[in-house]
Amino acid sequence: MSPVVVGVGPVSADDVVRVARGNAAVVIPEDAIAALTASRARIEALANSPAPVYGISTGFGALATRHIPPELRTKLQRSLIRSHAAGSGPEVEREVVRAMMLLRLATLTTGRTGVRAEVAQAYAGLLSAGLTPVVYEYGSLGCSGDLAPLSHVALAVMGEGHVRTADGTLTPAADALAAHGLTPITFAEKEGLALINGTDGMLGQLVLALADLDRLLVLADVAAAMSVEGLLGSDRVFAAHLQALRPQPGQAVAAANMTRILRGSPIVASHSGPDCPLVQDAYSLRCAPQVAGAARDTIAHARNVADWELASIVDNPVITDAGNVESNGNFHGAPVAYVLDFLAIVVADLASISERRTDRFLDAARNRGLNPFLAEDPGVDSGHMIAQYTQAAIVAELKRLAQPASVDSIPSSAMQEDHVSMGWSAARKLRRAIDGLTRVLAIEVLTSARGIDMRAPLPPGPATAAVIAAVRGRVDGSGPDRYLAPEIDAVVGLARDGSLVRAAETVTGSLS
Protein backbone atom coordinates (compact mmCIF):
# COMPACT_ATOMS: atom_id res chain seq x y z
CA MET A 1 0.00 0.00 0.00
CA SER A 2 1.37 3.41 -0.97
CA PRO A 3 2.10 5.82 1.90
CA VAL A 4 -0.18 8.70 2.81
CA VAL A 5 1.41 12.10 2.23
CA VAL A 6 0.61 14.51 5.06
CA GLY A 7 1.16 18.23 4.64
CA VAL A 8 -0.10 18.93 1.12
CA GLY A 9 -3.66 20.08 1.77
CA PRO A 10 -6.09 18.36 4.14
CA VAL A 11 -5.99 14.62 4.61
CA SER A 12 -9.05 12.89 3.16
CA ALA A 13 -11.43 10.48 4.81
CA ASP A 14 -9.94 7.76 2.59
CA ASP A 15 -6.47 8.65 3.91
CA VAL A 16 -7.73 8.24 7.47
CA VAL A 17 -9.16 4.80 6.72
CA ARG A 18 -6.00 3.71 4.89
CA VAL A 19 -3.79 4.62 7.82
CA ALA A 20 -6.18 3.48 10.56
CA ARG A 21 -7.30 0.18 9.05
CA GLY A 22 -4.90 -0.45 6.19
CA ASN A 23 -1.74 0.31 8.19
CA ALA A 24 -0.46 2.66 5.49
CA ALA A 25 2.82 4.42 6.23
CA VAL A 26 3.01 8.22 6.42
CA VAL A 27 5.46 10.65 4.82
CA ILE A 28 5.89 14.41 5.24
CA PRO A 29 6.96 16.33 2.09
CA GLU A 30 9.71 18.92 2.06
CA ASP A 31 7.37 21.90 1.65
CA ALA A 32 5.58 20.89 4.84
CA ILE A 33 8.95 20.64 6.61
CA ALA A 34 9.70 24.18 5.43
CA ALA A 35 6.36 25.42 6.80
CA LEU A 36 7.10 23.77 10.14
CA THR A 37 10.51 25.42 10.31
CA ALA A 38 9.13 28.86 9.49
CA SER A 39 6.36 28.69 12.08
CA ARG A 40 8.78 27.44 14.72
CA ALA A 41 10.91 30.54 14.24
CA ARG A 42 7.89 32.66 15.15
CA ILE A 43 7.30 30.67 18.35
CA GLU A 44 10.94 30.97 19.39
CA ALA A 45 10.82 34.74 18.87
CA LEU A 46 7.81 34.96 21.17
CA ALA A 47 9.47 32.67 23.68
CA ASN A 48 12.31 35.17 23.98
CA SER A 49 9.92 38.09 24.45
CA PRO A 50 9.35 39.42 27.99
CA ALA A 51 5.59 39.60 27.34
CA PRO A 52 3.73 36.44 28.44
CA VAL A 53 2.11 34.41 25.65
CA TYR A 54 -0.36 31.64 26.45
CA GLY A 55 1.04 28.16 25.93
CA ILE A 56 4.54 29.45 25.30
CA SER A 57 5.55 31.23 28.46
CA THR A 58 2.53 30.70 30.74
CA GLY A 59 0.76 27.88 32.53
CA PHE A 60 -2.35 26.24 31.09
CA GLY A 61 -6.08 26.49 31.60
CA ALA A 62 -6.91 28.07 34.94
CA LEU A 63 -3.15 28.29 35.65
CA ALA A 64 -2.51 30.56 32.66
CA THR A 65 -1.90 33.54 34.93
CA ARG A 66 1.57 32.32 35.89
CA HIS A 67 4.52 33.43 33.77
CA ILE A 68 7.01 30.56 33.34
CA PRO A 69 10.72 31.47 33.14
CA PRO A 70 12.78 29.96 30.27
CA GLU A 71 14.63 27.47 32.46
CA LEU A 72 11.32 25.80 33.47
CA ARG A 73 9.63 25.61 30.08
CA THR A 74 10.88 22.18 29.09
CA LYS A 75 9.64 20.91 32.41
CA LEU A 76 6.34 22.74 31.79
CA GLN A 77 5.71 20.88 28.55
CA ARG A 78 6.80 17.52 29.97
CA SER A 79 4.65 18.02 33.06
CA LEU A 80 1.68 18.95 30.89
CA ILE A 81 1.82 15.66 29.03
CA ARG A 82 2.46 13.52 32.10
CA SER A 83 -0.34 15.09 34.11
CA HIS A 84 -2.83 15.05 31.25
CA ALA A 85 -2.12 11.39 30.39
CA ALA A 86 -4.72 10.52 33.00
CA GLY A 87 -6.96 8.15 31.07
CA SER A 88 -8.64 5.15 32.62
CA GLY A 89 -10.60 2.09 31.59
CA PRO A 90 -10.19 -0.35 28.70
CA GLU A 91 -7.70 0.31 25.91
CA VAL A 92 -9.02 2.16 22.88
CA GLU A 93 -8.95 0.26 19.61
CA ARG A 94 -5.78 0.42 17.50
CA GLU A 95 -7.59 1.89 14.48
CA VAL A 96 -8.97 4.75 16.57
CA VAL A 97 -5.54 5.65 17.95
CA ARG A 98 -3.95 5.55 14.49
CA ALA A 99 -6.70 7.77 13.06
CA MET A 100 -6.24 10.22 15.94
CA MET A 101 -2.47 10.33 15.44
CA LEU A 102 -2.79 10.97 11.71
CA LEU A 103 -5.25 13.80 12.23
CA ARG A 104 -3.07 15.48 14.84
CA LEU A 105 -0.10 15.15 12.48
CA ALA A 106 -2.16 16.72 9.70
CA THR A 107 -2.69 19.82 11.84
CA LEU A 108 0.96 19.93 12.89
CA THR A 109 2.16 19.91 9.28
CA THR A 110 0.09 22.99 8.39
CA GLY A 111 2.71 25.13 10.10
CA ARG A 112 0.05 26.75 12.26
CA THR A 113 0.98 25.13 15.56
CA GLY A 114 4.63 26.09 15.89
CA VAL A 115 6.10 22.65 16.60
CA ARG A 116 9.51 21.66 15.28
CA ALA A 117 9.81 19.39 12.26
CA GLU A 118 11.26 16.60 14.39
CA VAL A 119 8.05 16.45 16.44
CA ALA A 120 5.96 15.92 13.33
CA GLN A 121 8.46 13.36 12.05
CA ALA A 122 8.15 11.49 15.34
CA TYR A 123 4.42 11.03 14.76
CA ALA A 124 5.01 9.90 11.19
CA GLY A 125 7.66 7.49 12.46
CA LEU A 126 5.32 5.89 14.99
CA LEU A 127 2.58 5.43 12.41
CA SER A 128 4.91 4.01 9.77
CA ALA A 129 6.48 1.60 12.26
CA GLY A 130 3.06 0.35 13.36
CA LEU A 131 3.63 1.43 16.96
CA THR A 132 0.37 2.37 18.65
CA PRO A 133 0.40 4.23 21.99
CA VAL A 134 -1.88 2.77 24.64
CA VAL A 135 -4.87 5.10 25.07
CA TYR A 136 -7.71 4.54 27.52
CA GLU A 137 -11.48 4.79 27.19
CA TYR A 138 -12.15 7.61 29.65
CA GLY A 139 -10.51 11.00 29.96
CA SER A 140 -11.82 13.32 27.26
CA LEU A 141 -14.61 15.86 27.67
CA GLY A 142 -14.39 16.82 24.01
CA CYS A 143 -13.24 20.36 24.66
CA SER A 144 -9.78 21.92 24.85
CA GLY A 145 -9.16 18.93 22.62
CA ASP A 146 -9.33 15.24 23.35
CA LEU A 147 -6.83 15.98 26.08
CA ALA A 148 -6.21 12.68 27.85
CA PRO A 149 -6.25 10.46 24.72
CA LEU A 150 -3.90 12.78 22.83
CA SER A 151 -1.66 13.09 25.91
CA HIS A 152 -1.16 9.33 26.01
CA VAL A 153 0.05 9.53 22.40
CA ALA A 154 2.40 12.40 23.19
CA LEU A 155 3.67 10.48 26.22
CA ALA A 156 4.85 7.68 23.92
CA VAL A 157 6.61 10.22 21.69
CA MET A 158 8.50 11.31 24.83
CA GLY A 159 9.56 7.67 25.31
CA GLU A 160 7.26 7.11 28.29
CA GLY A 161 4.19 4.94 28.81
CA HIS A 162 3.48 1.91 26.65
CA VAL A 163 2.74 1.09 23.03
CA ARG A 164 1.43 -1.90 21.15
CA THR A 165 3.71 -3.15 18.41
CA ALA A 166 2.35 -4.07 14.98
CA ASP A 167 1.70 -7.62 16.21
CA GLY A 168 -0.12 -6.34 19.32
CA THR A 169 2.64 -6.90 21.89
CA LEU A 170 2.51 -4.51 24.85
CA THR A 171 5.94 -2.86 25.11
CA PRO A 172 7.43 0.07 27.05
CA ALA A 173 7.51 3.01 24.67
CA ALA A 174 11.23 3.64 25.18
CA ASP A 175 12.09 0.06 24.20
CA ALA A 176 9.81 0.11 21.16
CA LEU A 177 11.22 3.41 19.91
CA ALA A 178 14.78 2.14 20.28
CA ALA A 179 13.96 -1.11 18.47
CA HIS A 180 12.68 0.86 15.48
CA GLY A 181 15.45 3.45 15.41
CA LEU A 182 13.22 6.24 16.69
CA THR A 183 14.38 8.90 19.15
CA PRO A 184 12.28 10.18 22.06
CA ILE A 185 11.44 13.87 21.80
CA THR A 186 12.00 16.48 24.49
CA PHE A 187 9.28 19.06 23.91
CA ALA A 188 10.12 22.76 23.72
CA GLU A 189 7.84 25.77 24.17
CA LYS A 190 4.22 25.19 23.08
CA GLU A 191 4.90 21.73 21.66
CA GLY A 192 3.23 19.68 24.37
CA LEU A 193 0.17 21.91 24.20
CA ALA A 194 0.03 21.69 20.40
CA LEU A 195 -0.05 17.89 20.58
CA ILE A 196 -3.18 17.66 22.73
CA ASN A 197 -5.38 20.62 21.72
CA GLY A 198 -7.50 19.02 18.99
CA THR A 199 -10.73 17.18 18.23
CA ASP A 200 -8.77 14.41 16.51
CA GLY A 201 -10.07 11.51 18.59
CA MET A 202 -13.73 12.21 18.03
CA LEU A 203 -13.15 13.17 14.38
CA GLY A 204 -11.21 9.99 13.67
CA GLN A 205 -14.04 7.93 15.08
CA LEU A 206 -16.57 9.89 13.02
CA VAL A 207 -14.64 9.17 9.81
CA LEU A 208 -14.40 5.46 10.63
CA ALA A 209 -18.10 5.35 11.53
CA LEU A 210 -19.05 6.91 8.20
CA ALA A 211 -17.04 4.25 6.37
CA ASP A 212 -18.88 1.54 8.32
CA LEU A 213 -22.28 3.11 7.74
CA ASP A 214 -21.76 3.35 3.99
CA ARG A 215 -21.51 -0.45 3.99
CA LEU A 216 -24.30 -1.05 6.50
CA LEU A 217 -26.81 1.17 4.69
CA VAL A 218 -26.57 -1.02 1.61
CA LEU A 219 -26.81 -4.13 3.78
CA ALA A 220 -29.97 -2.67 5.34
CA ASP A 221 -31.50 -2.42 1.84
CA VAL A 222 -30.47 -6.00 1.08
CA ALA A 223 -31.95 -7.28 4.34
CA ALA A 224 -35.18 -5.31 3.86
CA ALA A 225 -35.59 -6.60 0.31
CA MET A 226 -35.08 -10.18 1.49
CA SER A 227 -37.76 -9.68 4.14
CA VAL A 228 -40.17 -8.20 1.59
CA GLU A 229 -39.61 -11.21 -0.63
CA GLY A 230 -39.85 -13.82 2.12
CA LEU A 231 -42.97 -12.24 3.65
CA LEU A 232 -44.76 -12.03 0.28
CA GLY A 233 -44.56 -8.26 0.26
CA SER A 234 -44.99 -6.00 -2.73
CA ASP A 235 -42.21 -4.23 -4.60
CA ARG A 236 -44.65 -1.88 -6.36
CA VAL A 237 -44.43 0.67 -3.54
CA PHE A 238 -40.73 1.16 -4.32
CA ALA A 239 -41.44 2.42 -7.86
CA ALA A 240 -39.51 5.53 -8.85
CA HIS A 241 -42.64 7.55 -9.70
CA LEU A 242 -43.98 7.04 -6.17
CA GLN A 243 -40.69 7.96 -4.56
CA ALA A 244 -40.51 11.11 -6.69
CA LEU A 245 -43.66 12.40 -5.00
CA ARG A 246 -41.49 12.98 -1.95
CA PRO A 247 -38.12 14.09 -3.33
CA GLN A 248 -35.92 13.11 -0.41
CA PRO A 249 -32.66 12.06 -2.11
CA GLY A 250 -31.75 9.19 0.20
CA GLN A 251 -35.22 7.66 -0.07
CA ALA A 252 -34.92 7.43 -3.85
CA VAL A 253 -31.56 5.66 -3.53
CA ALA A 254 -32.85 3.12 -1.02
CA ALA A 255 -35.98 2.36 -3.07
CA ALA A 256 -33.93 1.94 -6.25
CA ASN A 257 -31.61 -0.49 -4.44
CA MET A 258 -34.53 -2.58 -3.19
CA THR A 259 -36.15 -2.63 -6.62
CA ARG A 260 -32.93 -3.92 -8.19
CA ILE A 261 -32.47 -6.56 -5.49
CA LEU A 262 -36.03 -7.87 -5.94
CA ARG A 263 -35.98 -7.79 -9.76
CA GLY A 264 -36.81 -11.13 -11.32
CA SER A 265 -38.07 -12.75 -8.12
CA PRO A 266 -40.51 -15.62 -8.80
CA ILE A 267 -41.74 -15.28 -5.21
CA VAL A 268 -42.70 -11.64 -5.74
CA ALA A 269 -44.25 -12.45 -9.12
CA SER A 270 -46.33 -15.24 -7.58
CA HIS A 271 -48.59 -12.78 -5.78
CA SER A 272 -48.38 -9.72 -8.02
CA GLY A 273 -51.51 -10.33 -10.07
CA PRO A 274 -54.85 -8.52 -9.71
CA ASP A 275 -56.33 -11.44 -7.80
CA CYS A 276 -53.90 -11.06 -4.88
CA PRO A 277 -55.94 -10.29 -1.72
CA LEU A 278 -53.04 -8.54 0.05
CA VAL A 279 -53.70 -4.80 -0.10
CA GLN A 280 -50.88 -3.13 1.85
CA ASP A 281 -47.78 -4.32 3.61
CA ALA A 282 -46.86 -3.39 7.17
CA TYR A 283 -44.84 -0.22 7.66
CA SER A 284 -41.61 -2.10 8.39
CA LEU A 285 -41.75 -3.44 4.81
CA ARG A 286 -43.49 -0.65 2.92
CA CYS A 287 -41.61 2.22 4.55
CA ALA A 288 -38.13 0.69 4.51
CA PRO A 289 -36.85 3.20 1.89
CA GLN A 290 -38.20 6.13 3.86
CA VAL A 291 -36.29 5.08 6.98
CA ALA A 292 -33.10 4.04 5.19
CA GLY A 293 -33.35 7.14 3.03
CA ALA A 294 -33.58 9.47 6.01
CA ALA A 295 -30.56 7.67 7.43
CA ARG A 296 -28.65 8.35 4.22
CA ASP A 297 -29.51 12.04 4.29
CA THR A 298 -28.45 12.35 7.93
CA ILE A 299 -25.19 10.61 7.09
CA ALA A 300 -24.67 13.01 4.18
CA HIS A 301 -24.87 15.91 6.66
CA ALA A 302 -22.43 14.16 8.98
CA ARG A 303 -20.03 13.67 6.07
CA ASN A 304 -20.16 17.39 5.32
CA VAL A 305 -19.22 18.14 8.92
CA ALA A 306 -16.40 15.60 8.77
CA ASP A 307 -15.06 17.13 5.57
CA TRP A 308 -15.15 20.63 7.06
CA GLU A 309 -13.36 19.36 10.13
CA LEU A 310 -10.74 17.52 8.05
CA ALA A 311 -9.98 20.87 6.40
CA SER A 312 -9.71 22.62 9.79
CA ILE A 313 -6.68 23.64 11.82
CA VAL A 314 -7.53 23.03 15.46
CA ASP A 315 -5.06 24.35 18.01
CA ASN A 316 -4.95 26.99 20.72
CA PRO A 317 -3.18 29.31 20.47
CA VAL A 318 -2.74 29.20 16.71
CA ILE A 319 -0.42 31.01 14.29
CA THR A 320 -2.50 33.22 11.97
CA ASP A 321 -1.86 34.33 8.39
CA ALA A 322 -0.41 37.53 9.78
CA GLY A 323 2.09 35.56 11.86
CA ASN A 324 0.41 36.37 15.15
CA VAL A 325 -0.18 33.79 17.85
CA GLU A 326 -3.78 34.10 18.98
CA SER A 327 -6.12 32.32 21.34
CA ASN A 328 -9.34 30.90 19.93
CA GLY A 329 -12.10 28.39 20.65
CA ASN A 330 -11.81 26.10 17.64
CA PHE A 331 -10.96 23.15 19.87
CA HIS A 332 -14.60 22.95 21.04
CA GLY A 333 -16.04 19.69 19.74
CA ALA A 334 -19.70 20.70 19.36
CA PRO A 335 -19.90 20.34 15.54
CA VAL A 336 -18.53 16.82 15.66
CA ALA A 337 -20.36 15.84 18.84
CA TYR A 338 -23.75 16.76 17.39
CA VAL A 339 -23.43 14.61 14.28
CA LEU A 340 -22.03 11.70 16.28
CA ASP A 341 -25.21 11.86 18.35
CA PHE A 342 -27.37 12.21 15.22
CA LEU A 343 -25.80 9.06 13.81
CA ALA A 344 -26.50 7.10 16.97
CA ILE A 345 -30.19 7.91 16.47
CA VAL A 346 -30.00 6.75 12.86
CA VAL A 347 -28.32 3.49 13.86
CA ALA A 348 -30.92 2.77 16.51
CA ASP A 349 -33.81 3.33 14.11
CA LEU A 350 -32.31 1.22 11.31
CA ALA A 351 -31.90 -1.61 13.81
CA SER A 352 -35.40 -1.08 15.19
CA ILE A 353 -37.13 -1.48 11.82
CA SER A 354 -34.95 -4.48 11.02
CA GLU A 355 -35.98 -6.22 14.24
CA ARG A 356 -39.66 -5.60 13.44
CA ARG A 357 -39.27 -7.36 10.07
CA THR A 358 -37.58 -10.32 11.74
CA ASP A 359 -40.39 -10.55 14.26
CA ARG A 360 -42.97 -10.75 11.45
CA PHE A 361 -41.20 -13.79 10.02
CA LEU A 362 -41.58 -15.61 13.32
CA ASP A 363 -45.25 -14.89 14.03
CA ALA A 364 -47.52 -17.42 12.30
CA ALA A 365 -50.34 -14.85 12.42
CA ARG A 366 -48.33 -12.42 10.27
CA ASN A 367 -45.78 -14.41 8.23
CA ARG A 368 -48.25 -15.46 5.52
CA GLY A 369 -48.12 -19.21 5.71
CA LEU A 370 -44.74 -20.04 7.22
CA ASN A 371 -44.18 -22.26 10.26
CA PRO A 372 -44.29 -20.57 13.66
CA PHE A 373 -40.81 -19.22 14.43
CA LEU A 374 -39.67 -20.83 11.16
CA ALA A 375 -39.27 -24.02 13.18
CA GLU A 376 -38.83 -27.37 11.43
CA ASP A 377 -41.21 -29.10 13.88
CA PRO A 378 -42.92 -26.33 15.91
CA GLY A 379 -43.24 -27.28 19.53
CA VAL A 380 -40.32 -29.68 19.39
CA ASP A 381 -38.19 -27.05 17.66
CA SER A 382 -38.09 -23.35 18.52
CA GLY A 383 -36.53 -22.20 15.26
CA HIS A 384 -35.39 -18.57 15.35
CA MET A 385 -37.48 -17.58 18.35
CA ILE A 386 -34.53 -16.56 20.50
CA ALA A 387 -32.60 -14.96 17.63
CA GLN A 388 -35.29 -12.30 17.74
CA TYR A 389 -34.78 -11.98 21.50
CA THR A 390 -31.13 -11.27 20.80
CA GLN A 391 -32.12 -8.63 18.27
CA ALA A 392 -34.55 -7.09 20.74
CA ALA A 393 -31.88 -6.95 23.45
CA ILE A 394 -29.48 -5.21 21.07
CA VAL A 395 -32.12 -2.76 19.86
CA ALA A 396 -32.97 -1.87 23.45
CA GLU A 397 -29.30 -1.14 24.07
CA LEU A 398 -29.10 0.95 20.89
CA LYS A 399 -32.00 3.06 22.09
CA ARG A 400 -30.07 3.78 25.27
CA LEU A 401 -26.96 4.60 23.23
CA ALA A 402 -29.06 7.01 21.13
CA GLN A 403 -29.45 9.30 24.13
CA PRO A 404 -27.29 12.29 23.19
CA ALA A 405 -24.00 12.89 24.94
CA SER A 406 -23.65 16.41 23.57
CA VAL A 407 -26.45 17.85 25.72
CA ASP A 408 -24.37 17.16 28.82
CA SER A 409 -21.59 19.38 30.12
CA ILE A 410 -19.61 19.10 33.33
CA PRO A 411 -17.40 22.16 33.96
CA SER A 412 -13.70 21.57 34.54
CA SER A 413 -10.40 23.37 35.18
CA ALA A 414 -11.74 25.52 38.03
CA MET A 415 -14.58 26.78 35.79
CA GLN A 416 -12.21 28.05 33.09
CA GLU A 417 -13.53 25.28 30.86
CA ASP A 418 -17.15 25.74 31.86
CA HIS A 419 -18.85 24.26 28.79
CA VAL A 420 -17.65 21.10 27.06
CA SER A 421 -18.94 19.03 24.14
CA MET A 422 -18.66 15.43 25.38
CA GLY A 423 -17.89 14.56 21.76
CA TRP A 424 -15.48 11.77 22.68
CA SER A 425 -18.27 10.08 24.65
CA ALA A 426 -20.60 10.47 21.66
CA ALA A 427 -17.99 8.80 19.47
CA ARG A 428 -17.45 5.91 21.85
CA LYS A 429 -21.14 5.07 22.09
CA LEU A 430 -21.56 5.33 18.31
CA ARG A 431 -18.86 2.69 17.82
CA ARG A 432 -20.76 0.33 20.11
CA ALA A 433 -23.99 1.15 18.30
CA ILE A 434 -22.53 0.33 14.87
CA ASP A 435 -21.46 -3.07 16.17
CA GLY A 436 -25.02 -3.63 17.39
CA LEU A 437 -26.56 -2.62 14.06
CA THR A 438 -24.26 -5.04 12.26
CA ARG A 439 -25.51 -7.87 14.46
CA VAL A 440 -29.18 -6.95 14.09
CA LEU A 441 -28.97 -6.80 10.27
CA ALA A 442 -27.09 -10.11 10.20
CA ILE A 443 -29.88 -11.79 12.17
CA GLU A 444 -32.47 -10.37 9.78
CA VAL A 445 -30.54 -11.78 6.81
CA LEU A 446 -30.16 -15.16 8.52
CA THR A 447 -33.87 -15.28 9.35
CA SER A 448 -35.09 -14.06 5.97
CA ALA A 449 -32.86 -16.61 4.23
CA ARG A 450 -34.56 -19.36 6.23
CA GLY A 451 -38.01 -17.93 5.49
CA ILE A 452 -37.29 -17.68 1.77
CA ASP A 453 -36.05 -21.28 1.77
CA MET A 454 -39.41 -22.29 3.25
CA ARG A 455 -41.19 -20.75 0.23
CA ALA A 456 -39.91 -23.63 -1.89
CA PRO A 457 -40.64 -24.76 -4.54
CA LEU A 458 -40.82 -21.07 -5.43
CA PRO A 459 -37.22 -19.87 -5.85
CA PRO A 460 -35.92 -16.47 -4.76
CA GLY A 461 -34.82 -13.79 -7.16
CA PRO A 462 -31.27 -13.90 -8.54
CA ALA A 463 -29.86 -11.25 -6.19
CA THR A 464 -31.37 -12.66 -3.01
CA ALA A 465 -30.38 -16.15 -4.13
CA ALA A 466 -26.78 -14.96 -4.31
CA VAL A 467 -26.98 -13.59 -0.76
CA ILE A 468 -28.53 -16.82 0.50
CA ALA A 469 -25.76 -18.79 -1.20
CA ALA A 470 -23.18 -16.71 0.67
CA VAL A 471 -25.00 -17.46 3.93
CA ARG A 472 -25.26 -21.16 3.08
CA GLY A 473 -21.53 -21.25 2.55
CA ARG A 474 -21.23 -20.75 6.31
CA VAL A 475 -24.60 -21.85 7.73
CA ASP A 476 -26.76 -24.84 6.80
CA GLY A 477 -30.32 -24.38 5.66
CA SER A 478 -33.58 -25.31 7.35
CA GLY A 479 -33.68 -28.31 9.65
CA PRO A 480 -34.05 -29.29 13.28
CA ASP A 481 -32.78 -26.88 15.91
CA ARG A 482 -29.02 -26.44 16.05
CA TYR A 483 -26.63 -24.49 18.25
CA LEU A 484 -27.60 -21.04 16.95
CA ALA A 485 -24.98 -18.67 18.38
CA PRO A 486 -22.14 -19.79 16.04
CA GLU A 487 -24.46 -19.44 13.04
CA ILE A 488 -25.35 -15.89 14.05
CA ASP A 489 -21.67 -15.06 14.53
CA ALA A 490 -20.82 -16.50 11.11
CA VAL A 491 -23.36 -14.24 9.40
CA VAL A 492 -22.23 -11.27 11.49
CA GLY A 493 -18.77 -11.87 10.03
CA LEU A 494 -20.21 -11.87 6.50
CA ALA A 495 -22.07 -8.66 7.27
CA ARG A 496 -18.99 -6.99 8.74
CA ASP A 497 -16.58 -7.83 5.92
CA GLY A 498 -19.04 -6.86 3.17
CA SER A 499 -19.55 -10.39 1.79
CA LEU A 500 -23.35 -10.18 1.86
CA VAL A 501 -23.47 -6.93 -0.07
CA ARG A 502 -20.88 -8.14 -2.56
CA ALA A 503 -22.96 -11.27 -3.16
CA ALA A 504 -26.01 -9.17 -4.07
CA GLU A 505 -23.89 -6.92 -6.27
CA THR A 506 -22.74 -9.88 -8.39
CA VAL A 507 -26.28 -9.73 -9.76
CA THR A 508 -27.38 -6.12 -9.36
CA GLY A 509 -24.12 -4.34 -10.03
CA SER A 510 -22.92 -1.70 -7.60
CA LEU A 511 -25.57 -0.63 -5.08
CA SER A 512 -25.59 2.93 -3.75
How would you concisely characterize the structure shown here?
The protein is mainly α and 512 residues long.
- SSE string: EHEHHEHHEEHEEHHHHHHHHEEHHHHHH
Terminal-residue CA separation: 26 Å
Total count of helical runs of at least 4 residues: 20
Name given to the CATH architecture of the largest domain:
Up-down Bundle
What structural category characterises the helix and strand content?
mainly alpha
The CATH topology name of the largest domain reads: Fumarase C, Chain A, domain 2
- Helix fraction? 40-55%
Question: Could you walk me through the main structural features you see in this protein, from its secondary elements to its overall organization?
Answer:
By secondary structure, the chain is mainly α. The chain has two domains: about 5-200, Fumarase/aspartase (N-terminal domain) (Fumarase C, Chain B, domain 1), CATH 1.10.275; about 205-510, Fumarase C, Chain A, domain 2. The chain has 20 helices and nine strands. A three-stranded antiparallel β-sheet has the order 4-6-7. A two-stranded parallel ribbon has the order 1-2. β6 (about 160-165) and β7 (about 170) form a beta hairpin. The radius of gyration is 27 Å and the shape is elongated. The relative contact order is 0.11. The model has no long low-confidence stretch (mean pLDDT about 95). Pathway: Amino-acid degradation; L-histidine degradation into L-glutamate; N-formimidoyl-L-glutamate from L-histidine: step 1/3. Belongs to the PAL/histidase family.
